[in-house]
Specification:
Helix 2 packs parallel to helix 3. About 35% of the residues lie in helices and about 25% in strands. The longest helix is centred in the C-terminal third of the chain and has 21 residues. It has a domain of about 100 residues: Rossmann fold. A five-stranded parallel beta sheet has the order 2-1-3-6-7, with helices on both faces. By secondary structure, it is of the alpha/beta class.
Length: about 150
């Protein structure tokens, strides 16, 4: 049993096949998943519902998920971005947010979400932003890096 079991996760992803894959991975980890495929729906969910974590695709068609990220920051909900472009694809204001490289892989997804929970709990306990950094490895030896989890 992991820290992710029973956690409510907002998944913002505009590609239906990618969303289904990510949702399946999150369900396998024991999460309760709410999917938003459009910016307006993601904003409404982020405003009106409570989530333990969020996973945001950066590019949502012709929009970006940054307004959702801003709401999550305000609500102190830990989140990460998912993108095929890595940190280079983020606007400067969001460079401290952890990034999950697409395509989604189960081990890095679990690792980063767990780190977000741990970092978020520490930040709330001390009333500050967390500057946790970790370098871990998947079972096949690939590095997983999560810098400055919020």
């Amino acid at each position: 049993m992991t820290l992710l079991v029973g956690r409510r996760v907002l998944l913002v992803e505009d590609e239906s096949l990618v969303a289904m894959l990510a949702e399946d991975m999150l369900l396998e980890l024991g999460c309760e998943v709410v999917v938003a495929m459009r910016l307006d729906k993601a904003l409404a969910l982020a405003r009106n519902e409570v989530f333990d974590l969020a996973l945001l695709d950066v590019n949502l068609g012709d929009a970006r998920s940054y307004p959702v990220a801003d709401l999550l920051f305000e609500r102190r909900t830990p989140f990460l971005f998912a993108t095929g472009y890595g940190k280079q694809g983020l606007e400067e204001a969001y460079k401290a947010v952890p990034v999950l490289q697409k395509p989604y892989q189960p081990a890095p997804l679990e690792h980063l979400l767990t780190r977000l929970l741990i970092g978020g709990a520490q930040a709330r306990k001390w009333g500050i932003g967390s500057s946790m950094s970790c370098v871990c490895h998947t079972p096949n030896g690939q590095p997983i890096r999560a810098d400055h989890c919020r």
